[in-house]
TrEMBL record:
Residues reported to bind [4Fe-4S] cluster: C188, C195, C198, C204
Database matches in InterPro entries: DNA_glycosylase (IPR011257), Endonuclease-III-like_CS2 (IPR004036), Endonuclease3_FeS-loop_motif (IPR003651), HhH-GPD_domain (IPR003265), HhH_base_excis_C (IPR023170), HhH_motif (IPR000445), Nth (IPR005759)
Listed name of the protein: Endonuclease III
Domain of life, per lineage: Bacteria
Originating gene: nth
Entry keyword set: 4Fe-4S, DNA damage, DNA repair, DNA-binding, Endonuclease, Glycosidase, Hydrolase, Iron, Iron-sulfur, Lyase, Metal-binding, Nuclease
Keyword set includes Nucleus: no
GO molecular function: class I DNA-(apurinic or apyrimidinic site) endonuclease activity
PANTHER family registered for this protein in UniProt: A/G-SPECIFIC ADENINE GLYCOSYLASE/ENDONUCLEASE III, ENDONUCLEASE III
Pfam families named in the record: EndIII_4Fe-2S, HHH, HhH-GPD
Physiological role: DNA repair enzyme that has both DNA N-glycosylase activity and AP-lyase activity. The DNA N-glycosylase activity releases various damaged pyrimidines from DNA by cleaving the N-glycosidic bond, leaving an AP (apurinic/apyrimidinic) site. The AP-lyase activity cleaves the phosphodiester bond 3' to the AP site by a beta-elimination, leaving a 3'-terminal unsaturated sugar and a product with a terminal 5'-phosphate.
Swiss-Prot/TrEMBL cofactor(s): [4Fe-4S] cluster
Reaction catalysed by this enzyme: 2'-deoxyribonucleotide-(2'-deoxyribose 5'-phosphate)-2'-deoxyribonucleotide-DNA = a 3'-end 2'-deoxyribonucleotide-(2,3-dehydro-2,3-deoxyribose 5'-phosphate)-DNA + a 5'-end 5'-phospho-2'-deoxyribonucleoside-DNA + H(+)
Length: 215
DNA sequence: CTCCCGATAT
DNA sequence: ATATCAGGAG
């Protein structure tokens, strides 16, 4: 992909979603970390429904450790993958208390060592909570980047991330990341993407195919 | 690679 | 009925 095409994509995304932002409700780094951990294979909307009550009941790492595992499981059950997530939350909270004075560490390396926190979650926390430029590659960013030809179809999520970091100016990483999410979530959807009204459909094999069959 | 898993959209 | 949802661990 040449530079002009990439710039066209970035300009179009900015035009379509000028105020794209993190849609996981949170009021501090700790809540954000919990919310992102919960968001794996689940919609943000559902996570927000659950965290509205969850964050009233659990304010600190100690709070999550003050109840039996089974109780926490029930409190997040609607999210799915709830057994492993509940276990990870308690293990993560134990680590925060034992290693970091109950605070969320402000380094990518330390974050990924926490239970249930991988590269994608660490990137989201670093960028949204601590203002460090990052591009977290989730299901939307991966799908959109591949459809638009920003990277190759066979690329791993790490390769997708490296591609985006190479092609997007560092100071625009975080905003671009959010725009790719919005683009994937509301426009270039996994099912029934809006190819007919997509200003970038000429860049996308899938889009071209759908345009033809629509005629 | 598989497993984890309920809610929602299609 | 099936696909998908801000993935991570083993």
């Amino acid at each position: 992909m040449n530079k002009q095409t990439m710039n066209r994509i970035l300009d179009t995304l900015k035009d379509m979603f000028p105020d794209a932002h993190c849609e996981l409700n949170h009021s501090n780094p700790f809540e954000l970390t919990i919310a992102v951990l919960l968001s794996a294979q689940c919609t943000d909307k559902k996570v927000n429904q659950v965290t509205e009550e969850l964050f009233k009941k659990y304010k600190t790492p100690s709070d999550y450790l003050s109840v039996p595992l089974k109780e926490l499981e029930q409190d997040i059950k609607q999210i799915g993958l709830y057994r492993s997530k509940a276990k990870n939350i308690q293990k993560l909270c134990r680590t925060l208390l034992e290693e970091y004075g109950g605070e969320v560490p402000q380094s990518h390396d330390a974050l990924t060592k926490l239970a249930g926190v991988g590269r994608k979650t660490a990137n989201v926390v670093m960028s949204n909570a601590f203002g460090v430029p990052a591009i977290a590659v989730d299901t939307h960013v991966e799908r959109v980047s591949k459809r638009l030809g920003i990277c190759r179809w066979k690329d791993t999520v790490l390769e997708v991330e490296n591609n985006l970091m190479k092609k997007v100016p560092r100071e625009e990483w975080t905003e671009t990341h959010h725009r790719l999410i919005f683009f994937g979530r509301y426009h270039c959807k996994a099912q029934n993407p809006s190819c007919e009204i997509c200003p970038l459909s000429d860049l996308c094999r899938e889009g071209k195919k759908r345009m033809k069959s629509a005629k």
